[in-house]
Each structure stands twice: as C-alpha cells, then as structure tokens.
Please model this.
Amino acid sequence: MSGVAPDGVFELEIGSRRFGADPLPHEEIIGCRVDKIVAEWTAMRVQTTPVLLLEHSSGRRIVADGHHRIAAAQILSETLGGRPIRIAAQYLRSPVLLPAHRRIHRAPEGCVDRCRAVVNASKGMGAAAVMRALWQALPLECGSGEIEWSIVGHAEEAEDIVLVPALTIDEVLEIALGPGPLLPPRSTNFQPKPAEGSIRFALDLP
Model:
C-alpha cells in the first residue's frame, strides 16, 4: 500500500470498462463529477478517500460508495491502453443505509414543491421508484448553476428539504446483482463514510 491509510484499506485493481464490472455498481454516475476526479488525480496523483465496498454471500463485491472514483479509474486505465489502475478501497463491515434526503441550495422557483409532489406520488411504488422519479424532476445539472443540491441523512420538514424514503441494503444488492436498470446517481447514503483526507494513497500514474 502506497501512502498513508488506516487499517482495513487495501488496493483495488480497476481496469478498462470493456473488461466488465468488478466491483458491481448499483448507481449510475454523473459525467462531470467523474471528469473532475480524473483531473484531480492526474494533477495530484493522490487519492484521499477510499472506495467503500459491500461483500455479498456469493463472493461478488458491490460498490457502496465511490462509483465516481471507480469510473475515474476506468477512464484513466483506458488512457493507458487498458493497464489496470490501483486505487484504495475498504469493506463496509457494518453498513447503515440512511435516506438520501435532498437539501436544495439553488433551484428554479417551484422546484422544491414539484419534487415533493413527485415523491408523494411515487411512494406506493417503493423507494427505488421514488429515487428514479425524483431524478427526472431534480437532476444535477453540470455547470449550469440552475440546480444545486446535497444529500443529508437526517432531516425534518424544512423549506429547503425534500424528504425521501431509504432503500434497504437487500434492495441495493438485488439491483447490483440483477439484470435491471441501476439507480440514478446519488440515490443511496451508506454510512459510516471515512472523512475526506482520511488517506493519502499514491496513484501509479505516468
């Protein structure tokens, strides 16, 4: 292990996307967030937060947190002709899955009310359906500045909050292992997460 990392952090080898998915994702990604990580890693050559994984009874590994970091490693692998990139990862041994409530920092007028209406209309179809419907109503616009939001795990009714139900870990595993569509980006909120800067893992980049 290169750099400074706490116990339990190990090297995860990520190859080009054409070689398939391991570990398995459960969420889609946001392109601009991946591009930002690629630029940061290329400039700094250091990873400061590990990817978090779940271990299924089948032996398959599932991404709990870090889809964008894995996608960044896949892109870097492709730029190097398919040479695998080693990044830092850690198993989440006692995972807690909190709701991914939306705190709206900036949005067009009426957006919050429309999102609440979408959530209320979708609740009877399950948490995954709620998150898919909400993504259609509240996407994360890359660079537009029109919509800005963040995730909070504990929240009460407030002017800037859209409350959503939490998925179960079993639901996340079923989505990751199944043939159906993935969840939209940032649909889950696995805890506990290591703090930003908890590691300094040297990336083997040219």
